[in-house]
Automatic annotation (TrEMBL):
PROSITE patterns: GP_PDE (PS51704). InterPro entries: GP_PDE_dom (IPR030395), PLC-like_Pdiesterase_TIM-brl (IPR017946). Keywords: Hydrolase. This is Glycerophosphoryl diester phosphodiesterase. It comes from Paenibacillus brasilensis. Residues 3-240 form the GP-PDE domain. Pfam families: GDPD. GO terms for molecular function: glycerophosphodiester phosphodiesterase activity.
């Protein structure tokens, strides 16, 4: 189906972002084709799924993710901030998420790093992916170009993508130089000409993060292959699946 639905940090409009609850809820939606998530490293080099470099916003912990080991991170509550229903939800490991999603949905795994914050991140993430033979089910993305280069050096066959919220004139050349076949871009930067150029070069483009139904409809006119990343996959369903359903009924009534 065109305009593939990407659940941003899982079904994060309802469940606490980047938790197994959010991923489980996303997997329950038959129209969710991809899930986007963020990966960092614990102090003892376990790949963990969390967005912020610090713990305060999405857990009851304090300080930096990188300063706590896996056992310590597991003691934190990563759900109560969202709703009391999710009290006790944990920060998941990448391994747990891969095991849950394997064979069910594709994964956009953001390598969440800055400079040399996590020198072993790429290797640790690739180890978990290769161990499960999921190379064809993932794309590794990042704002950090060094992380993308390291990923390609370690595993040339792995698909990679640049995350960007800008519109440089030589974007296509930058992607080619990075060996990226995927682009994750802030949706206001996209237009029809850019989509035509990039898709013509074999680049898959994902727009982030789109929660407004009106904007979803507007983006859908840019190109049929544009992927849409949202915190609310049910709104994607309302815009695309229900619209197609109504159109089908309209056409069926016309030909009766």
């Amino acid at each position: 189906m065109n305009h593939l639905c990407v659940a941003h940090r899982g079904f994060s409009g309802i469940a606490p972002e980047n938790t197994l609850a959010a991923f489980r809820l996303a997997l329950e939606q038959p129209f969710v084709h991809w899930i986007e998530l963020d990966v960092q490293l614990s102090k003892d080099d376990v790949p963990v799924v969390i967005h912020d470099f610090t713990l305060e916003r999405t857990t009851n912990g304090t300080g930096r993710v990188k300063d706590l080991n896996w056992k310590e991170l597991q003691q934190l509550d990563a759900g109560s901030w969202k709703d009391a229903e999710y009290c006790g939800e944990k920060i998941p490991s990448l391994a747990q998420v891969l095991d849950m999603c394997r064979g069910r949905v594709s994964l956009n795994i953001e390598l969440k790093t800055a400079g040399d914050m996590y020198p072993g991140l790429e290797k640790a993430v690739l180890r978990e992916i290769v161990m499960r033979q999921m190379e064809g089910e993932v794309v590794l993305t990042s704002f950090e170009r060094t992380a993308l280069r390291r990923t390609k050096e370690l595993a040339p066959e792995i698909r990679t993508g640049l995350i960007i919220d800008a519109r440089p004139d030589d974007l296509a050349k930058q992607l080619e130089k990075l060996q990226c076949s995927f682009l994750s871009m802030g949706y206001p930067r996209l237009d029809r000409n850019l989509m035509k150029d990039l898709t013509g070069r074999g680049i898959t483009v994902m727009a982030w993060t789109v929660d407004d139904r009106r904007i979803m409809r507007k983006l859908s006119a840019l190109h049929p292959e544009l992927m849409i990343c949202t915190n609310w996959p049910d709104r994607w369903e309302q815009v695309f699946l229900l619209s197609k359903h109504r159109l089908w009924h309209y056409i069926r009534n016309l030909i009766r």
